[in-house]
Amino acid sequence: SPDLGIVATIYPENSTIGSQLGIISLEDTDPTGGFTVEWLQFDLSRLNGSSRPASAIMLDGNSPDIAIIRNNIIHSFSGSIGSNNPIQIHQDTPNRAQTLVVHNNIVHDICETASDPVQAITLNQCKGTGYAYNNTIFRLKIKGSSQRVTAIRYGNAAAGAVAKVKNNIAVGFSGMSADDNRPFWMTNGNGVDFDYNMSDNNANNSYEATGTNSLADQNLSSQVKFISTVEDSVDLGLQSDSTALAEGVDLGNQYGVNIDASGVDRTSLDWDMGARQMSESDDGNPSFFLFVS
Known about the structure:
2% of the residues lie in helices and 35% in strands. The protein is built from 1 helix and 22 strands.
């Protein structure tokens, strides 16, 4: 979409740099360090085989104490990288408690063509606090049997770790069976603050959006209603009658979560689910004045 706030596009070529690395890999042995990756588009359409990094953005075990991954777009991969399944934003096993913030990113059209799973965002081995806020994840696919398609994965976390997962849209997945479609795979339930998310009616019921304020079993065409899902002209903004409009929760402005993927400031707006804020401000009940002479 031309109104997104992207400032640079990365077109990675096939490479033998190593399957455990990301196109951007974060590593900082300084325990006081911090790093932000923002406003980048990762167009993966030139990658077509096993000679490629495993992730778009990889956080190493020595990655910064605070890593913020926000307002990026990752899309258009079709291929296989062997046993290192494509995980687009991935945290490797950290060496210490860290804060990982992943918000207002868009991941779409990622296809694993062999017998490996696909994941968009992992907070999987968190030792601190992981935030997944207002991301939109669409059309992840696998073509191998007995594998999984997952938008956000959290599990195997250390004692005391916390994941906060809110305002995300994860829809349009294609596994080889209904069991394969696992948009929200949370196996460390005691440490999850999980609500205000959306999944569709193609999701495995055990891995759909849960929580009092979440929207599960949504129909992609009549309820989710993206502006365009046509390949090569994808626009994952929400139409004016989408059920995700104004159904998110106000998350404040910590780590810049209030700024959406188009640069819109959600402050004072009714928050939508997903990375694109389409709802305008709520005027409430404005006063009405009648002047009579």
